[in-house]
Structure formats: structure tokens, C-alpha cells
Specification:
- By secondary structure, the chain is mainly α.
- It contains 17 helices and no strands.
- The protein is globular.
């Protein structure tokens, strides 16, 4: 049994988050209230052991807090209950993938990699129009060696299939292929093509900024993120990732803080709010405001009391 939340639930600037703001498990996940989501969903699956949707949401909640084994159990149950649901295979592949990444090079990782590929391929087979499933499958093909079923040609096939579904993500996959083939100029062209295809969407600007950071072109990275600030927010989690990128690079902390505060006004499941609070706390600490930083770390732990990074950060600023 999970412990009840023992921190008061905080929102931005110390305000209480209204209870009516999130009532269903999906809403709890969307605003990053992982502890409450898990408690609610555990109760639901106990009441109804055949509730496939609740098992899938429970898997996603465990995925959010990086408890891969519990996530696998819940996702496998969802898939078994409704094997024709593409989304359930997709999330099972994702949690298998995270578990495999942490298994290192081992027989266990090899077995998990096969399950990742099978899950993603089945997700695409069941819903060929799911751009999310095709993107995840392309990422697998790019990351896995040939003997595990990977390959650039397979990833390129997914990029072709993505073109009518999500042109921006099609170019993103092509950019990743070019990077893997050590074609930096080709990768940059594709990242910029993704910006055009997405109508200057925030996610595409973030991906270009990330590419520029890896190329150590930090001034250009900052410029891309400043452009992103005024771009359409097609993917809200791009704001979270932009703030994290600036924090890691040690650049333009005021812009990073603006990104994170804006993100916390309406967080999404893809970017857990407790991580945004933690990043914001780290930035405030670097600016010398330890009290405000502590409030952000407490806000993170109010959402997910097991989040180790915020536990460590709070301990540091309180001493």
C-alpha cells in the first residue's frame, strides 16, 4: 500500500491547487499529481479487476514516477484485457524500453528490447494512423542494433509513413537518422524543415535548440529558445524541456524560469509537473533565493513524495 500524501499540496507561488481542478485519474495525471493518481487507480483496479483503461492509466502513473516494474505489471494487464487496443501496446513498449535502458547490455536487456519492438510494431499494426506509435517505433529502429531488429532503413520507412500524418515529426525522424549517420548539415536541414512543417511550433524549435546545444553552438541555441518563447505552443512539454535545457547548459536562467512558470499554468502528462517544480527550484537556488527554491522542492514532493531528486534538493537548501 502506498503512503498517503504527507505534504500539503502546493501550486505556483504557494497557492493551494483547487480540488476541483483534477478529479478523474486522467486529470490527476495531466497535472502531475502522481501520488493521488496511483492511490485512486489502485482502488479502482481492486474494485474491478477487468478495467483495462484503469490498468493502462496506472501503468502511466508508475511510468511518470519511474517505477518500471510496477508499470510493466499494470501495462501487461491492460494489454491482456484488451489486446486490440493500440494505445495499450504503445505504453507497454514504452515502459519495457525504460526498463531495458537501465538494464545495460545484458540478456535481460536483449529480451526486453524484443518486447519493445513487438509492442511498438503491434501498436502501429492496430492503428496505422497513430503518429505517436510510428515515432516511438522509429526511435526503436534508430537505437537498436541490427540483430535486435533495428536499422536506419526501417526508421526511414516510418518517416515516410509519418509525412501525411505529422510532417513535423517526419522531418524530426529524418533529422535523427542524419545525426546517426554523422551528417550534421543534413540533420540541421531536417530540424529546420520540421519548424516549417509545424508552422513554427514550439516543439520543433526546442528540437533545433537541443541539436545546437549538442553541437556546442550555445548562442544559437539561446536564440532558438527565445524564438520558441513567442511561437505557438503545439506541445506544452516543450516549455518544460526548454527550461531544463537552459538549466543544464547554464544559460539564460530568467528565460528558463519564464518557461517553467508558464508551463506550470497548464502542465500535461508528458512532462510531470513535479519535475517542472524541481527545475524551477534549482534555478531559484542558483539565483540565491533558497526560500523560494525550498517551496518549489516541497511542491514537487507534494505531487510525488518519492521523487528522489527533490528530496535531495530540499535537504540541500534547508541545511
Amino acid at each position: 500500500m502506498r503512503l498517503r500524501i504527507f505534504f500539503s499540496l502546493l501550486f505556483l507561488s504557494g497557492l493551494l491547487l483547487p480540488a476541483e481542478a483534477a478529479t478523474s485519474p486522467k486529470e490527476l495525471l495531466a497535472v502531475g499529481r502522481a501520488d493521488e493518481a496511483i492511490q485512486t487507480l489502485e482502488q479502482q483496479v481492486k474494485r474491478s479487476a477487468t478495467d483495462a483503461e484503469s490498468y493502462n492509466l496506472l501503468c502511466r502513473a508508475y511510468f511518470m514516477i519511474e517505477e518500471w516494474d510496477h508499470g510493466i505489471t499494470a501495462c501487461e494487464r491492460a494489454r491482456s484485457l484488451d489486446p486490440q487496443k493500440s494505445l495499450y501496446h504503445l505504453w507497454l513498449g514504452r515502459v519495457y524500453g525504460e526498463k531495458a535502458d537501465r538494464a545495460g547490455f545484458s540478456f535481460s536487456a536483449a529480451g526486453l528490447a524484443k518486447k519493445v519492438r513487438t509492442s511498438f510494431e503491434r501498436a502501429v499494426e492496430l492503428d496505422p494512423k497513430s503518429w505517436e506509435a510510428r515515432v516511438d517505433l522509429a526511435e526503436f529502429y534508430l537505437g537498436a542494433p541490427g540483430f535486435m531488429g533495428g536499422g536506419n532503413d526501417k526508421a526511414r520507412q516510418q518517416a515516410d509513413a509519418l509525412l501525411p500524418l505529422n510532417p513535423g515529426m517526419s522531418h524530426w525522424v529524418l533529422a535523427r537518422i542524419a545525426s546517426k549517420e554523422k551528417d550534421a548539415a543534413g540533420a540541421e536541414r531536417e530540424y529546420r524543415a520540421a519548424i516549417v512543417a509545424s508552422h513554427s511550433g514550439a516543439r520543433a524549435w526546442f528540437e533545433l535548440a537541443s541539436f545546437l546545444r549538442h553541437a556546442n553552438r550555445l548562442d544559437e541555441m539561446e536564440q532558438a529558445l527565445r524564438t520558441m518563447e513567442s511561437s505557438p505552443v503545439d506541445r506544452p512539454d516543450a516549455l518544460l524541456d526548454g527550461g531544463s535545457l537552459l538549466l543544464q547548459a547554464g544559460r539564460d536562467h530568467p528565460l528558463a524560469i519564464r518557461f517553467l512558470r508558464r508551463y506550470l499554468e497548464s502542465p500535461v502528462e508528458e512532462g510531470p509537473a513535479f519535475k517542472a517544480h524541481d527545475y524551477l527550484g534549482q534555478l531559484l537556488e542558483k539565483q540565491g533565493d533558497r526560500r523560494a527554491a525550498a517551496e518549489e522542492f516541497r511542491a514537487a514532493l507534494a505531487l510525488s513524495h518519492t521523487y528522489a531528486r527533490s528530496q535531495e534538493d530540499l535537504k540541500r537548501v534547508e541545511h
